[in-house]
# Entry
Amino acid sequence: MTTTTRSSRPVQILGWLSAISLALTAVMALVISPPDVNMGDSVRLLYLHVPTAWLAMYVSFGVTTLASALYLWKRTRSRFWDLTAGASAEIGVLFLGLTLLIGSIWGRITWGVWWTWDARLTTTAVLFVLYLGYLAVRKVPASPEVQARRSAIVAVAAFLDVPIVHQSVEWWRTLHQPATIGDERRLLDPQIHGAMAWTLLLGVVAFTLLYCWLLAHRFRLAWLEDRLADRHLEVAIEERRAEAGLSEAAEVTS
Amino acid sequence: MNDAGYIFAGYFSTFAILAGYAAWVIRRKRSLSRLLRPEDG
Amino acid sequence: MAFAVRLRSAVSLLGRFPALAGVDLDVAAGEIVLVQGANGAGKTTLLRACAGLAAFTAGEAEVLGHDLRKDRKAVRRRIGLLGHATFLYDDLTVADNLQFSARAAGADPGSAADAMARLGLDGRLRDVAAGRLSAGQRRRVAVAAVVARHPDLWLLDEPHAGLDAGGRDILDHLVRDAAAAGATVLLASHELDRAAALATRTVVMAGGQVTNGLLTPPAAAKEPVHVA
Amino acid sequence: MWRDAALVAGKDLRVEARSRVGVNQVVPFALLVLIVFAFALDSDRGTLASVGPGLFWVTVLFSGLLAIQRSFVIEADDDARDALRLSGLDGAGIFLGKAGAVAAQLAVLEVVLALGVVVLYNVHLHGAVMLLLTCLAATVGLAAAGTVYGIIAAGLRVRDTLLPLLVLPVLAPVLLAAARACEAALAGTPSEGWPWVRLLFVFATIYVTFGVVAFGPLLEEA
# Structure
């Protein structure tokens, strides 16, 4: 890879595609699609809510888990996977934060409260904190290998917890409170209005493109940071060797 | 449109946050690229 | 020749600082090697890295026949490190501390009592909590904890510091006995007269490297240093 | 592995027995929390009895955090990992030993706390089998997950804040499940409680296994 300032061609195209599709989604969601029979106009928020949730929980954290596992497996161990895991988790946390924000506004409109201990809200919140913890671990300074291995193990541990969190919260709510009405799951029902389904589909595509574009850039940023650290290390080793007056013996290959 | 305030606030904040994040990543990336470039070619 | 320690261009980082910046060092089994050098030359990191506490991130590092870059655990039971910290549990008695140290290393239970006897700890101090000991007494217990492990490689970082005259004599005696029995000793000390008298060879460290660490002629030392 | 585990657990418990930090500080702290809750929630006994199981497990959770932090603070150096690594003990053994010692301390604490809840909150104990199984599984799960994150945080300057951040979301299902299972047992509706008990056992199994596998690598990293 070279370190030119501009992105590569495919990434640029990806950027434009995601920008266009996001704009289209906004137009479809806010102007073209009709209000829902039950939910009214608040359904328009779900065109953001559902895609960000899907991308954060399944795609972003899925990629983080997979990349972490690949890092831990000796045969495929490489810095590439570690950087990918970190970049993807950061975007995932961002998207999940947006999911909570939009969900909260939607809840304010629909239920009259900003927050309710609904099963999925609770799971999402726990997941959000779980991966915030993962990002915190990544920020603890250490040598690169140590940091990578530690982060990968934390990512796998977090992933193991997800089904348990999900199951426990699901039971908790179904045992103690009737299921919420106006569930957004209904949106995925094929019977719903055509324009609504298309808008939702477009939203998912748009956010997926955006995720890929952000991931490419965020990965590259992490890779550059890594390179810079390596560069500093090479300099530090040369300086250290010079302390002993042995610098000419140090044929440092970089 | 009912609840237009909430809905527009939701859309606005979402896109603002995403744009802010993307701008942060790209700005930082560019400055690092410039730092690294002299020896990398 | 059987090497207890064999390092080639070995690099070890403290955080992002290269404490060891390409060390070449051979230590044959049974040697007592004194590592000399100014403060900050890398002596402590060298000993810690040989004990597997600091990682070697580049170069070759072989200790007691194991590649430390691949497996740092393998050598631990066969190593005794006397560092700046004493690694004692303040709430446990001297006897319990030594017992734990010996059993963790897989040494037989009698060796703890034996070590106490050799360092003169088997009297009143035996049942005193380590946290109540004076600094000098703690050092003695720390030495005993190393002795109780029957290590094949002794890594002694400033072992004489903080010991009284009697303790120093005992320590020197123990080190000579161990080397005579085939153990290897790597020793960093500022008490040069005493340490030089004890050592069979002296190497010098500066800038995270060892200037005269190789036993073989310099042909092998021509290898380039690999970094990162 | 088992030999090393017994050695570490024995050592940790002996340190606790000698230092009496648990008896002198953690147990009074836990009882104090029960009393503080009573102040905060209006000492109307009906309220306290109904939220008793939840308060009990919140208290256990926070005391558990203290126990885990302490489990690594007692290691004989500033960097707890140095002493453990130098000992030459097997990573899985150290994990089982430390988690076992934490679990044993928590079990004692739970007995004291249970007495506190019965006396102070006027809770009547029912469904002893379910209560015991819940305590067993929840304690093992808490100790195992906590110990895994304890070693990650040990030796870091930020450990006191990092550990709760990492471990509390992971333990959220344990808190939820244990509180619900106890509620079901006390209410005499065991059929509602068994799924929770099963979930606790699954959690404990997963994290004990994970700890046995991952503790070695986590300990080794410099």
